[in-house]
Amino acid sequence: MEDLHFALMMAGGSSIEHLTFAGKSDDERLSVTSIAPHSMVVVDGDVATKAELCSRLAAELGDRFQMLSVPSVENLLPADIIWDVVCSFEDKPSSAPPFTADDCATSKLSELIHKTLESQGSREGKIKHLRHRNKVAFAERAVARLKTYEQLTQPAKDLVDKMVSFISKANP
Asked: What is the pTM (predicted TM-score) of this model?
């Protein structure tokens, strides 16, 4: 996107705790606005347990702070694509029932995959390989299956729309 100025940041886990968006930092946190004044932050929904942190970020960023409605960004993928990708890592067709949209919206994806592979009799080593070492392969396979905006889940569409709006506002 040529000649547009913006920064999008996806932060997971505790890394967001080391950042500030309120201008110059008086403590040891990194001032994101000093580096990228037009920035939007998207955090996983499971960070909601850190209420004080979320309140601080919401106050500092306003509508430039977005907390996902699902545990993590991977959960925004459509259930059928997640299921298809998980099955693509298996040697045999899965006999487990496919994931539902509700499964994907409410469960940590890694736990959902682990339970599914375990129920299929997969060896623990294969489960760990998929969960920890093949995140890039999982993402590549999932993205390859996404062809149109219409395939996105509604929460994913909402996030895309907010990002496009943010970029438009940052570049009048």
From this structure: 0.76
